[in-house]
Amino acid sequence: MYRSIIHFHSTAPIFFMNNNNILLLFLSILLLLAPASFPPITAAETEQQFAVEGGKVLELDESNFDAAISKFDYILVDFYAPWCGHCKRLAPQLDKAARILADLKQPISIAKIDADKYKRVGSKYDIDGYPTIKIFMHGVPTDYYGPRKADLLVRFLKKFVAPDVAILNSDSAISEFVEEAGTSFPIFIGFGLNESAISHFAVKYKKRAWFSVSKDFSDKTMEFYDFDKVPALVARHPNYDEQSTFYGPFEEKFIEDYIKQSLLPLALPISEETLRLLKDDERKIILTILEDETDERANRLVKLLKAAASANRDFVFVFVGFKQWEGFAESFEVSKKTKLPKMVVWDGDEEYFSVVGSDSIEDEDQGSQITRFIQGYKDGNIVQKRISAGSFMGFVNSMIGVGTVTIIVFVVAVVMIIQSLKEEPLTVGTRDEGDYPSSSTSQPEARQPLRSGEKQDKED
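Predicted structure:
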């Protein structure tokens, strides 16, 4: 009969086994990793499980997560890690918001789960950084990229429980709707437009905009929203003080084109938040790199960019200050010695295009130079380039989560195990204590202040 020979060292256990026992060990590990079998939870037990005092943030785990997202029509879930500093700062904001959201006519619950501990849940929902927030609407998850301060978070979340299309029957109803919508989303108002014309798009783009139709309104409202005939579809960006009007044709393709092109403002400042918004847009990006996006010269140029964007809706116009985000700007071969402003056309990924003779903008007659740049791109007078790998990875790495790192570690571990199995078996007692150094550092102490999966706080 085979016997396993186990040698316990004073600082770390080392196992020496034959091939049969190695196979048995791997089978045991697989059984431990397999989902545990739990008896089904009855409806009464589910109710009792979440019978918490109103307005409290629910603490979930693997045993009750699915039951929670099934029970609540709308539930915001914070996937956090206990060691994450940004998660700790978010927690009190969620506590405040939970108390307000619980009292809404259509309440929204807030929950949290330690995704670093309950990795099976984190893996299921592709959690690769902390904190990651998702809102589950009737069990269907949607990424939450909105503000994180309690009062703004509440206003943002109200949108998810609002009707797909609000029906407005008076000037006061329009004012109340716009006030309630706030500034976090663009607002579409169809004046004299049938609800059915935009209902499909209201569902499709609900997580990105407010939609409404107004059946009755005054001449004063027409003047305020700057349209002179009906039907008209007005798009507003309160946060950017921008507005545009669409008079048709009100056919499905043209309506959707207008909505898609109006989801972003005419000229969008680059930030981590807006980079995520750009991922959902298929248009080429005209990027202008400024020295400092807050100075007066930059403000004048941004106004010209907005005018160009209004006339060229087939592009997205964005800008960034070298002073504000040096690492991002360096990805496009920009340094402190580069003559700015500079314009490029970016595909949103790893390629961009310089227009021959038109990439830098002089101080004089900038509007004409922007026009020549766009026309030069359309005419094909371009040089195709790739994003500078080093600097590009600098800002991309901040968005790479622990999921990638976990996969790499797992692959390395498997390779090491395979290599060790190929080696000649060791004899008991052949290693002395010097071969097994011990570490007195505990796991929490060994963590770095900012992990690769920890997400930076965002400006609200």
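Summary: The domain at 45-158 is CATH 3.40.30.10 (Glutaredoxin).
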